[in-house]
Amino acid sequence: MQQLDNNTVFVKQLARELGFDHCGIAKAEQLSDDAFRLEQWLNRGMHGGMQYMENYFDKRIDPRLLVDGAQSVITLLLNYFPQERQRPDAPQVAKYAYGNDYHDVIREKLNSMLARMREEWGDVQGRGFVDSAPVLERAWAQRSGLGWIGKNGNLIHKQAGSFFFIATLIVDIPLVYDSAAGDYCGSCTRCLDACPTGALVSPTVVDGSRCISYYTIELKDALIPDKLQGQFNDWMFGCDICQDVCPWNRFSKANTETAFTPIPEILNFSNSQWEELTEEEFRRIFRKSPLKRSKFAGIRRNLQFLQPPTT
User: Fold this and answer.
1) Which residues does the annotation say bind tRNA (predicted)?
2) Average pLDDT over the chain, rounded to whole?
3) Structure confidence at residue 311 (pLDDT)
4) Does 300 carry a binding-site annotation?
5) Half-sphere exposure of residue 137, counting CA atoms within 13 Å on the CB side?
6) Residues paired with 79 in a beta bridge
7) Strands 164-171 and 155-156
8) Strands 235-237 and 92-93, sheet pairing
């Protein structure tokens, strides 16, 4: 038991050294309850055009199918709440996309973490994930005591809010497991009331096919449906409405990760500067940014959709 304690302390200290803000650990096992909820969500078509959500269902609900002999799921949170904000009269970008692409930032940290564990313990089998594989990150975060799934579908940490990236490291060594977190949303419905497209259909259930983030990032169609005109509240890439209104985010503090330092153009571009942006400039300015996921054509489409219709 002492060795388990020592190993667990090592993991959590290592997480802090690498810049993660919070670390929790849960036993690797099948997520039976989450499997039922995921199946219902998919059957109701709430994933819209994100067909990849239908793939690898068995692996999504059981980490032991992702890592042979998996015993522990380590969940890590990395704060992205910014010190500065965009000018309010410009097309809005979700805060997570102010700086460099978090996939690259977190993947490097996970690789370093696994390498350090192997230096300490020898042959550790493991894999790190950040939005790149069939892993139910929020479910594991709740199981490992890092927070609860809010009514807006985001993980909420009681002392720090919800502006966090979630990363997962699945390993084949036993550790001391944390207790699951309780739910502290209570009777609050601010997020449900604030969503302009009605994507929050019920507490914790997000209809992805109605979410502004889905339309401005995931949707690959050339046009956004006209019926949604006027409902995007100037959100050009992603959306933070359901987080901005959440009372728990009064505890959010500015991140200290230099890679998330906002790209100056995101903070300062006016509406006309976004409109006049060329594809060459887009590729140069946003080469390390999550905005490249929508590509220049997607950003142009979103900007055009935000313009009031001509009569």
Assistant:
1) 220
2) 92
3) 47
4) no
5) 21
6) 164
7) unpaired
8) parallel
The answer on pLDDT for 18 being more than 70 is yes
Provide the pairing of β-strand 205-206 with 200-202.
antiparallel
Q: What 3-state class would DSSP assign to 116?
A: helix
Find out whether 240 is annotated in a ligand binding site. Answer: yes
Q: How many CB atoms lie within 10 A of CB 190?
A: 15
Strand segments, DSSP code E, in the chain are 22-27, 72-79, 92-93, 126-129, 148-149, 155-156, 164-171, 200-202, 205-206, 235-237
DSSP 208: G
Burial of 32 (0-12, 13-18, 19+ CB in 10 A): exposed
Residue 268 among known ligand-binding residues: no
Q: Is the dihedral of CA 203, 166, 76, 69 positive or negative?
A: positive
Listed residue (299, 204, 291, 284) closest to 242, CA to CA: 204
- Any bridge partners for residue 25, and if so which? 74
Task: Please identify every residue annotated as catalytic.
Answer: 131
Q: Is residue 214 pLDDT above 80, yes or no?
A: yes
* Cβ neighbours around 72 below 10 Å, total: 24
DSSP line for 124-157: --EEEESSSSS--HHHHHHHTTS-EE-TTSSEEB
23 belongs to an annotated ligand binding site: no
**Local structure of residue 215 (DSSP, 8 states):** I
Asked which of 31-40, 78-87, 114-123 is least confident by mean pLDDT, the reply is 31-40
Q: In whole angstroms, give the CA distance from residue 2 to residue 281.
A: 57
Angle, CA of 115, 292 and 201, to the nearest 5°: 90
Q: Are 139 and 41 within 8 A, CB to CB?
A: no
Q: Any known ligand binding at 234? A: no
